[in-house]
Amino acid sequence: MTWEVLSIVGTIAFAVSGAIVAMEEEYDILGVYILGIVTAFGGGAVRNLLIGVPVSALWEQGMLFQIALLSITAVFIFPNNLLKHWRRWGNFFDAVGLSAFAIQGALYASEMSHPLSAVIVAAVLTGSGGGMIRDLLAGRKPLVLRSEIYAVWAVMCGAAIGLGVVSTAIELYTLFILTTSLRVLSYSYKWRLPNRSLRAQG
Prior knowledge:
Elements: H1 2-24, H2 29-51, H3 62-76, H4 80-83, H5 86-111, H6 116-137, H7 151-162, H8 169-188
Helix pairs in contact: 1-2, 1-3, 1-5, 1-6, 2-3, 2-6, 5-6, 5-7, 5-8, 6-7, 7-8
């Protein structure tokens, strides 16, 4: 049940995220649906390739595809005066999608008895892969590669599940809330990882 709930939450969050980015870039209706679907399922496809699950397994998620299409449609027909608040809510949807999919990806790899490193990689790719593909298709610098903290929270999810620190449904939901909150705090207060620029000073 926890797996299904996280899958639904992540799918809705990333489908909405992809659709709104497409509308910001003034894509047509087909582009909006394509970017929404790619954002929702891209991370899972990359994860499946790396942990040995056939990519075709994605096509068995019929209900999730329907949920994604409904979410995209709802966003597309939303009034513009409500969508203008995307700047505030867009990052929140992204945080929810990151948390839900990072935990789902880690659970997936853990249930296949993969080592800790694979569980962490699955968490990062599932949580941020769709967003990276979305940003690249929209001609933007991928959010996960910026200095603002993003993928670190997916690593935290993978480590917690891979090490067995979190296992019960209540603990997983708590991890989801914690990860979402940390991601919201990191963009609200502009927490950043150390970086080094090679650009000439002055």
